[in-house]
Amino acid sequence: MTTTDTLIDRIKTHRVFDHPLYEHWAATTPSAEVSGALFHQVQSFCASTRPGGEFPTALRSLGWNEQALLIEEIVDSESGHGPELATMAGHIVNRTGSPVFDDVYDTTRVEAWLKSSSDRLLAGLPGYDRETGLTPQAAAAIEVFRRRFSSDAETTVRNLGTALALEIISNQSLIPGEKRALIDSGHYKADLDEPEMHYMAEHWGDDGAEQQHEANVIKAVSSVMDASNSEQIEQGVEDFLSSLCALWDVLDAALLASGLQPAE
Predict the structure, then answer these.
(1) pTM of the predicted model, to two decimals?
(2) Cα R_g (the chain), whole angstroms
(3) Which candidate, 149, 150, 151, 127, places its Cα nearest to that of 139?
């Protein structure tokens, strides 16, 4: 039977874990519009991962009360982070040149401008949806998390695998990758101590939210996975990894890797 450790190893050796998007993003400063288009896709995807939907209730219906509490802790922790991510995005866009936003805390205006950047740069891609401003790859990654609004047993078990992959990738790949690109590169002259970067500060490091989220979901999966459900959990892991990898691939190719000039 597959073990939790085996699944964690699979997640950490998947191509998406060390995706070149982060390296390319850190290698040079993208324009305001490129940064905006990137953030629109990333922010839209991240928003889909926060709601719990029917997931905790469905876990309880299977008799997994402790596991439901662990997931609920993650959901509660993520509440309100959408506006914080928009503020960080607006702040980074302002650091690419002439300020675009006079108020980065105006979430509605920031998010509208991020979408308009995505429309200008990505609308020519096959399957791009102008209404949502999403690439088909972003829409597919978001669809994986819409399953949380279903409560049948098979979907609920798969959702556990998806949650495991999400939190490990978020904690050990996505947040560190964004930190390299947005802060460590020095291109944006941004710092964790800036109030506009609170989203990053709250998620980064050993005391960050993502560290606790990862611990919660590993405990949840480890305590219920057995021979009867391991294949479904594995499928949930793969659903997340493959969909996120496809999204990173298209964003890297369309916005970063093509014509990228190495940093001096």
Answers:
(1) 0.93
(2) 18
(3) 127
107 burial via Cβ count (<10 Å: 0-12, 13-18, 19+): middle
If you ran DSSP here, which 8-state letter would residue 151 be given?
A: -
**34-61 confidence digits (pLDDT tens):** 999 999 999 999 999 999 999 999 999 9
Q: In sequence order, which residues have a C-beta less than 8 Å from that of residue 205 and are 6 or more positions away?
A: 211
Q: How far is CA 230 from CA 24, 57, 227, 234, in A?
A: 36, 21, 6, 6
Collapsed DSSP state (helix, strand, coil) of residue 67: helix
Alpha-carbon separation of residue 52 from 5, 44, 206 (angstroms): 25, 16, 24
Please enumerate in sequence order all residues whose Cβ is within 8 A of that of 180, keeping only pairs 6 or more positions apart, or say none: 22, 23, 25, 26
Query: What is the per-residue pLDDT across 176-218, written as a single tens digit (0 to 9) for each?
Result: 999 999 999 998 999 999 999 998 888 887 767 788 899 999 9
Q: Is residue 210 within 8 Å of residue 77, measured between CB atoms?
A: no
Q: Answer whether 133's CB lies under 8 Å from 44's CB.
A: yes
Q: Retrieve residue 19's tokens.
A: 């995706």
Spell 166-188 as b/e; 16+ CB within 10 A means b: bbbbbbbbbbbbbbebbbebebb
